[in-house]
Amino acid sequence: MSMRVRCDNPIISRRTAATFALPTLVFVGVFLAFPALWAMYIGLTNLRLTGISAIQPRFVGFANFVSILRDSFFHNSLRITAQFVLGSALIGQLLLGLLLAVLLYNVKGPINDIVSSIVILAWIIPEVVVAYLWVAFLDYDFGLLNVTRNLLGMPAVNWFFSHPVLSIIVFNTWRGTAFSMLLMGAALQTIPPSFLETADVIGASEWRKFRDIMIPLIRPHMITNAVLITIWTFNVFGPFLLTGGGPAFATDLVSIYTYRNAFKYFKLGYGSAISTIILAINLILAAVYMKLARRGRA
Amino acid sequence: MKRALCVVALLFIAGLFALPILWLVTAPFNERPTLGLQFGKPTLSNFEGVFRNPTAVRGLRNSLLQAAATMLIATPVATMAAYAFSRASFPGQHTILYFLILLSSVVSGVSAMVPLYVLMQTLGLIDKHVGLVMVYVGGLLPTNMFIMKDFVDSIPRAYEEAALVDGSTPRQVLLNIAFPLCRPGMAVIAVLIFVSTWSNFLMPFILLRSASKAPASVAIYTFFNEVGIPLIGLIAAYSFIYTFPVVVLYLIVNRKFGFRFYGGIKG
Q1: Residues of B whose CB is below 8 A from A145
Q2: With CB atoms counted within 10 Å of each terminal CB, which end of chain B scores lower, N or C?
Q3: CA distance readout (Å), B142 to A165, B137, B231
């Protein structure tokens, strides 16, 4: 058998390939790329959901952007979103995910399966159900958390009212840690076992093994993970189902601020301008990610 | 000693993670459920309530319809593109792939909700199943195309090449060799597409208006009595039914293929 196999030897013709790729490109072009570009244009108009500006929007230049940047509600939502991303993605999910991955690395068998299943369950249950679960869990009168506190002799707390941002941070950490746990777990599997065995032989402590062997070897994965969960957490809408942005705008994330302006106040042009700003922030985060991913591969 | 410490820590964290989920397995089976945890004689009366409630049943049917339609369109479309990008070489290939990755991470539901609404309104597709399904397909294609491309890349090209050398026509190679080889990967992305559509809240919330078209994720917010008190028994049982297929499908994919496919990110 003398079969010549070249890696770039095409199995299907260019024409067939183009035909195969076309439907994807059309769908993505119309329903993903075009809306993103169009948002920039609508953001320059005073388009509204109702009234005269709904039919004949006027070009208003950068007026929307100027009012957004001056809107104290926008500043408020940026500040809350920053706390939310820092707290639930970078501190919550990343650290807890890493901790779980390291613990699971040392424990195999049924306990490993049970623990990872529970954490993953929190991640795959549909958003609306998760919202109800947390409304129930944090309920002032009947919620499991306050009932437990009462049993321990502590007073009940009105969580959404007294600690609104903390509530959605804990909620989102619970919701998303599974991804970091899985990614960090996969990263730990790439460490050659001989490294850790050698460390055992010379009597290195667990902490030194963690700090000097594990962390340096999985650092690229940690950075990838951090950027991805930052983008996702920045774009999360789930807390809306939990708090609706309240009380008194205390959990008014940028996603909720956008929804409110576009669909509650009917300001589609203004909402599009916010979308453009969100897209720009996503783009910067994604550019960081792509750059890191490329460097990791080289 | 070290293992024991790890086990204790793991069980503690898992316990904390399980606490909010407990309600989902107790309340649906309770005769008079509240927002608290109650254990009593298990009953199925809440489930009967769900199936007697037309809005609830319609919600599940709409979810099924929307998720199945999205799955049936997006799976073959993503597979064809994945096959093309894996097996052919054409100019601009890498640029297109680069832009697809970029788009899928930059354009999220939140950043696109306003322009998508305006687009659907312009096309007259607001409050139409078709419009919602198109938006789902467009949003899910890039990620699932990449998962599928990884899968096709992992199949040796020798199968198709051997068939071509043996004198099969390109059409025969695609139908008799390539398609059967791609099937396991297609099953995985089909499940992923179904689950993410089934679970979605934001898109139907924005793009649909009439209650008769609302999927379960939106219908669940209408379960209040005349004075605005939530019907907790109905909500709990409905949540259980609505979550069940997601968990089952996840278990199937996980058992057969491991978790590396989920979310499209490989470790």
Answers
A1: 19
A2: N
A3: 33, 9, 39
